């Protein structure tokens, strides 16, 4: 193993250059909604050494948060099981896909990485209405990124779909707490925020992979519960709809 300085490790969390530029993102904004199951199975990682089982559902998850908090690194760690040393900032939106098993179900996870810079906010907002779940990432060594989670929550409420989507708040870079104890956002602060806003919470390290898969699985379980409830409600409303009245007049 190569010993890293604190600055080196911070540098490792710089975002990678995205595949979609601001100019091209608009034309691709509907791709999240129309991306079909056949394409989602291409270039995926399946959590089973045996023959992959086709996914029961496709979940679209968006990663949001300030720039430099580790969103791109989270995506690569989850989808590729690797931690890339130096990633430049994402421009626009990028995504990758992986199949995961949660309990007895297999889900296709489309993980969408977004730019955290203010100038790309209008682009990112167009994706809020087309997702099944949201991961808000902050850096535990950067208190301002934690304070800004409130702003990201407000944007989800303002620009998201009418149906409330499951959200998990992720405190990233916990491996750096040992070197920056005084300035770190504590676990209790993150939990308190999550309880206040009624969202899920977990701390991760994309460098060591700690809790990265767990965060997505936790969100996937919640998304299934929410979708099942919505489908049950739809069925009940359909069954209760009155039959059309036949007229006796000709």
UniProtKB/TrEMBL annotation:
SUPFAM superfamilies, alphabetized: P-loop containing nucleoside triphosphate hydrolases (SSF52540)
Major site of localization recorded for this protein: cytoplasm
The protein, known as: Ras family protein
Pfam families, alphabetized: Ras
Recorded GO MF terms: GTP binding; GTPase activity
Record keywords, A-Z: Coiled coil, Cytoplasm, GTP-binding, Nucleotide-binding
UniProt cross-references to InterPro entries, sorted A to Z: P-loop_NTPase, Rab, Small_GTP-bd, Small_GTPase
NCBIfam families listed in its UniProt record: small_GTP
Stretches the record annotates as Disordered: 13-32
Compartments where located: Cytoplasm
GO annotations of cellular component type: cytoplasm
Species this protein is from: Opisthorchis viverrini (Southeast Asian liver fluke)
SMART domains, A to Z: ARF, RAB, RAN, RAS, RHO
